[in-house]
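Sequence in, structure out.
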Amino acid sequence: IPESDLFGLTFEIFDFSESSMDMGIKTRLVETQGESIFDAIRSTRRRLAHKLYFGNSEIIIISRDVAENVGIKSVIDFFLRDAEPRETTIVLLSKEKTARELLNAVGVNSSVVSTDIKDNISEDNKVVSKTYNTQIYDLFNTLECEGIDAVLPAFRLAKNDKEEVAESDGVAVFKGDYLVGYLSPDETKYLLYINDKAKGGTLVFKTKEQTITFEVAMANTKRSFKYDGNFITFEIKPVVDVYLNESSGIIDTSSLDEMRSYAQEGERFLADNIRKVLDKVIGEYDSDIFGFGNTIYKTNPQLWREIKDKKPSYLGLLKFNIKPKISIKNTGYMNY
């Protein structure tokens, strides 16, 4: 709460007095404020008969105002120190003015909005690969590690059948523990490839004749680097197995040359978009959400000591050689 320098917290809790077999689970929101996170949590006892229990917490939503002006270390400190919260609790950022606005939304799959959001994040990587799954222990490790910056899934409100629902909207990019910018859902997809986090989703690109859609069956990315005394060149090699899922025109799936040409088009498309994301995050945000510095730190500690405090940032020393390899494993043969 900027005008008062207090933390404002909103909790979604089960309301068993209103829940039933016919009506399903009902929830209600409890609001409180305090000089610290723990102080605000204990203040809920002024409104509730029992103190809150955090062993079943599913998500922690941080507002963009706190992430920009306070930082996220102070927010997660309680959830790591206290005995009740689980270290696998998912942390995300609200692109709305407050975190409360997301909890006021309507659940699409469940009446419990927080469960809807958690399931959205947990299943995303297998289906569309357009956001990030950041659990609190991962976030803490990232904030404490050398040469890597944090990234959180970002959510916003969106219209769905005249109702407002919480929708994933890419990721929030951090420098240290402060929010510095965002990546769109499409840009997030290529971040996942860079960081070896992509497990599914689609690749949709245009050739001269038509639009091709690949469904990603498997993906893994290998990274390595070389230092020539002036620049550090990272080689990024995504290896992707795909199914030919859709085309906007007739194609000859029996032609190995034609299929290979589509795979090569996909490789160029993937490489171009990976480079765009690298340029945006490094050039605009001066952030290392890819962990390149951490890779150098673990592999060549002496080199890391030489470059980590370099002004301007060590990120200016990095060059990239991007070499995707796409294999079409199924063409869905059709006899025209």
